[in-house]
Amino acid sequence: MAHSKALLVLENFIAGKFVPCSSYIDSYNPSTGDVYCRVPDSGKEEVEAAVRAAKDAFPVWSSKSPLERSRIMNKLADLIEHDLEEFAQAESKDQGKTVTFARTVDIPRAVYNLRFFASSILHHTTECTEMASLGCVHYTSREPVGVAGLISPWNLPLYLLTWKIAPAIACGNTVVAKPSEMTSVTAWMMCKLLEKAGMPHGVVNVVFGTGAKAGEALVCHPDVPLISFTGSTLTAQRITEKSAPHCKKLSLELGGKNPAIVFDDANLSQCIPTTLRSSFANQGEICLCTSRIFVQRGIYNEFVKRFVAEAKKWKVGSPSDPTVDMGALISKEHLEKVRSYVKKAQAEGARILCGEGVDSLDLPAGNQKGYFMLPTIITEVKDESCCMQEEIFGPVTCVVAFDTEEEVVKRANGVKYGLAATVWSSNVGRVHRVARRLQSGLVWTNCWLVRDLNLPFGGMKASGIGREGAKDSYEFFTEVKTITIKH
Ligand code: NAD
Q1: Per-residue pLDDT tens for 118-132?
Q2: Is 253 a catalytic residue?
Q3: Most CB within 10 Å of its CB: which of 7, 195, 197, 384?
């Protein structure tokens, strides 16, 4: 298509060099609807070159001491932090999120991911046991796996990409990363800093392009023994099938349909603002976002009244406006998909209390073609409804009433997903009891999104396979060997 303005053109980063591609994909600014960037449409050839570069770099990188690797990673973290504002502006333009969110969440967390794994790699120990009667000592050793294939989604672009790159390279692997074709810019910006950080050529290679072409070429490459993937459950099924003939090591961080359970002894003045954030932060485009709120009947009316009143105060508009709470959704297609869920709920007889189709969206002149939507709250919706079963991944949340603890645990568990849950109650015994019974990889009580990266992150059921975190990522990105010595 013809483009009137000069576009940003990205290039793949292979063996320490930026390399142009023979074809490109348009990338949109979600808050204006304009094409502003061209992303390489890589395929087998580009993936092949990147894997070769990563393979070549592996012997030297894997034999460096953890401390040497750590120093380079810390330097990279410093360089990203130095350019934090530039990264935040770019992330917002590429993804649609507010600059405030990118500045306070995405980019600081990307920096922290690098620092965290640069530090944690220095402190792992291996195991040793003794069989004195047989004169044997056993110990384990851990070695990097090789070339790691890293595939990340569009919702938290640099945040989730560094969550994979950092542990992979800290453990001594080299990587070929493929960010989402819709949000590639900050990964490309990071590549520009690798040389200055002292990263040897070929340790970090980034290939841009679609999942079907570039992603699948990486998944099917015989010299990539490990894939760390964050994205949808549907794509994970395809990746599992395609990688099966190679018996690859897989870590799959997938979607969720996360419940919040609000008991009648909850502190509503903490619960309501946190549940608003957990429902609508980053336009509801966080895998950990709440989308089913179960409220105990005694406080149901009060909760709904206060929750809706607060949601109506959320401002939607230009992502660069510091007074705005919510920016644009990632794409036109995604916006249509999210809206279609609200329409389906209405057709089923549910009530839309605020947002889509109920309130009017007032956008600045420059954002009229952007992909915006108001925070939307649905009620009187059945547990079997697609809005209560499927991941919507937008600013839509359902509120329903419950009576007993037994009932709510069963209903909260009644979906195919099991990523995150939130429990609100001041009864200590109850929060422990309910947390134990929820089928969910993460349970937050009386808070949301408070993370200690030391601890496992990941989902149950259709929300994923494997966990990542200090120890878990170390285990995933290394192969363990048991060695027995007879003396
Ligand atoms: P997606 O599955 O469409 O794409 C994710 C990545 O996979 C992209 O880079 C895409 O290009 C690539 N891809 C697509 N098809 C592929 C294929 N056949 N082979 C290899 N790669 C392929 O997901 P998305 O729409 O980008 O992201 C949203 C989803 O991600 C939601 O379901 C969300 O819940 C999930 N998510 C999960 C977590 C988590 O940690 N559990 C975090 C963020 C997002």
Answers
A1: 999 999 999 999 999
A2: yes
A3: 197
